[in-house]
Amino acid sequence: MQHFRIIRPLAFASALLFLSIAGAGTRVMAQEPAVKEPVATPSPAVPVATQDPTVKNRPRTTTDKSKSQKPATSVAQEPKPSASPTDIPPETQANRQEQSSEEAAVVPFYNNFFNTYRLGPEDVISVSVFGQDRYSRSGIAIPPSGRISLALIPGGLFVNGKTVDEVAEVIKKRYDEYIIDPEVTVSLDKAASYRYSIIGDVGQPGIRLMNRRMTVTEAIAEAGGVLGTGDKSRVVLLRRQADNTLAAIPVNVSAIYKGKVPDSTYLIPGDQIVVPGNKWKSVQKVLGMAQTLSFARIFTGL
User: DSSP per residue over 127-184, as a string?
Assistant: First the structure.
């Protein structure tokens, strides 16, 4: 009984504490909706602007906007100042034009020379097969027989008298039996079969190698130039024709040096340049004959 008397007040106090806590929780839950969802106050109505019928029927002013944007467009499209030809000094312009004209005049001759070059003995070529290094060869010197040896071509290939493009086409056809779509390129490494000769009153007459396209004046310059006894105005170029006859082509080297005529006579393989003597050479011959006669008189006593 004593224990019951002690526990009863404690249980009653616990019940009161629980009831007080439960009541406070219900009050808080009842107040939460009012805090979280405030009542929206009505805002003042915004007056709706009504459009005037006259304004509605008035056409749009798109042209005015485009007009106002034209100055901006013109400014944006205005190119930046750049160096115009007028800003370059006249001397520089003249030099550039002269260089371009010289290149345009010279390059076609050199390209034409090597594109139409006919292979011969002592020429050096290279054969390249794309993606097939074992079938490629470089530094092939063409022998006097004109027949070179290549892989997969029994008996070799005759190349004398052919251009590099023609040789590449022949090799491509032969390799097509072993390689799918072969890409063959033949290049000329050294031109040594073209020759010309120069005789007469020049510093070093003889037969010379023609490894590039050259004019008569260039050939004379490589031969040491015309001697004092040579006649520059009566130089003759001898060229072999189809019937094996020699055609004489006069070349006035003196006029070319003076700028009166263009230097446009180009050599082809087998040409022969003849530089005749002038009047001074004839005088020297006469004087030489006179000295010989006087020397003979001394011994003959005449």
Answer: EEETT-GGG-EEEEEPPTT-EEEETTEEEEEE-TT--HHHHHHHHHHHHTTTSSS--E
Alpha-carbon distance of 264 to 223, in angstroms, equals 19
Q: On the CB side of 122, how many CA atoms lie within 13 Å of its CA?
A: 8
pTM for the predicted model, two decimal places: 0.51
Tokens of 64: 């005015």
Q: What structural domains does the chain harbor? A: 91-193 (3.30.1950.10), 195-281 (3.10.560.10)
pLDDT, tens only, 89-125: 776 666 666 666 655 655 555 556 667 889 999 999 9
Query: Which residues have a Cβ under 8 Å from the Cβ of 10 and sit 6 or more positions away?
Result: none
List CB contacts of 219: < 8 A, sequence separation 6 or more: 196, 198, 208, 267, 273
